[in-house]
Amino acid sequence: MSLLTKILGRKNNAQKNRENYFSIIQAYQKLKSNSQLKFGNVAGLLVNKENLEFLNHQENEPYFQPTNTKTLPNSSFSIEKDDHSTNWVIIHGENFPQIVERIHFAGEKITDQGYGDLILAAVFCIEYNSKKTYIIFNVKSAQFHPLVLEDEKTRDNMQEINLGTLLSSEKIPIEKNLELWHPLWGIPF
Question: Can you give the residue ranges of every domain in the chain?
Answer without folding.
Answer: 3-180
